[in-house]
C-alpha cells in the first residue's frame, strides 16, 4: 500500500479516502490494509490503535500535529472540564469524535476543486467546508455543494463536480459577503477555531460569556425576567440558517431556555458549535470574540497535564483528586468559606496569591471584599432580573462598582450570594 501525507487543511476522512482511491482499496477493508502496511513500514500498531493515529503514522506526523491540522475535533471540543483540557490528538484525548463530521454528508467548493486541479493535478476536501453553520467557502465565498452519494470520499471533489452528483443546499445569501453580520462573525470564529491545539476550561469560557451576556441584558440562569441567549440568537440570525443548523430554535417560545444553545445556564460541557454561536452573538466582531476566547486559554486551566497519561493506564501514585476538586469540589469549599479567599487559603494550605489567581479565573471572586448587605442585596436583585442600573441605585451603589464586581464572574457570584444571605435578611 502506498502511504502519503495529507494535503493542507484536508480532513482525516478525506485523507483516508485518497489512500483508498490510489490503492484501490474498498471501504470495508481499508482499516486492516492500512494496519498491515504500517506494520510492514516498521510501526508498532496496537490492535486498538485508532484510525486517526494510524493516519498520523501514514503521514509521518505525531498524532497531536495531525489532529490539529486534519481533524475536526477542535470544532466539537471547544471547551472541556477542568483537568481535561488535553491537547487534541494526545493519548489522554478521547477518540470517539476524531474522524467524525459535524454535518450530514461531505461538502466541497467547486472553485477550490478547479484551483487544485490547475495547481496540483488533483483535488481534495477541506476541513472548513464541513463545519456546522459554514455554508460558503471561506476563501472563494461561494455556496458549498453537498456530495449526493453514500460514500463521498470514494472520489475526489473534482471527480464529483464532473459527475454532477452534487446538490446545492439552501443558503441565506448567494455569497458569504452578502450574509448577515452575525453569520459572517460565526463563520470567521468557527474557521479560526480549527487552528486551536486544545480546548479551554468550560468554567472560564462560561465566565467570559456570562459577563458579555450581563452587559447585553440577558439572563445567565435557567429562569428570570430577562431573555436568554437563545432569544437573542433567534432575533439576529436568519430563520433559514437557524432551521438548517439549529433545528427547533425558530419555534421556541420566547423567554424559555433552549437546551442546546443556552450554554450560560449549563453546568455540563456544551456542544462545540453552541459556544461558537454564543461568541458570535455576544461580541460585536469576530476578532474581539476570538481574542476573548484565546485569553481564556492563554493560561492552562490546571497543571494536570504535568503527568502524562495513556488511555486505560494510570501511573503509579497518580490521583485525579486534584482534577475532581477544581472541577466541582471547589464550589462547596468556596461556600463554606463564605467566598473569602483568605479563609480558603488557610483551609487548603496554599499561598493566597496562587489561590486568588486560580479562583478569579474560575469566576469565584473574593466576596468578603464586597460584603456589605447593600451590595450583596444589589447582586441578588440583579440576579433576579432587575437591571444593573436599578439594582445599583436601589441599594445606594454606583453602577460602575457593581458592574466591575459582576464582571469577575456574575453567574457563580449571584448563586453564591443567594446561598449565603441570611434567610431573614431583607432585600
Task: Offer a few descriptive terms.
427 residues, mainly alpha, 4 domains, two-stranded parallel ribbon, 20 helices, globular, disordered C terminus
Tally of strands: 5
Q: State the low-pLDDT regions, or none.
A: 299-319, 422-427
For the termini, the CA-CA separation is 74 Å
The secondary structure category is mainly alpha
Tally the structural domains: 4
How would you state the average pLDDT, rounded?
A: 83
DSSP helix count?
20
Strand content: under 5%
Largest sheet: 3 strands, antiparallel
Oligomer: single chain
How would you characterize the overall build of this protein?
The protein has 427 residues and is mainly α. It folds into 4 domains: 12-71, no CATH class; 107-176, no CATH class; 181-296, no CATH class; 328-427, no CATH class. It contains 20 helices and 5 strands. It has helices spanning 12-23, 30-40, 51-59, 63-70, 73-76, 110-120, 157-163, 181-193, 202-215, 229-236, 239-245, 272-282, 286-296, 321-336, 341-348, 352-361, 373-383, 388-394, 399-406, 410-420, and strands spanning 79-80, 107-108, 145-147, 166-167, 200-201. The chain has a 3-stranded antiparallel beta sheet. The protein starts with 11 loop residues before the first helix and ends in a 7-residue tail after the last helix. Mean pLDDT is 83; it is low at 299-319 and 422-427.
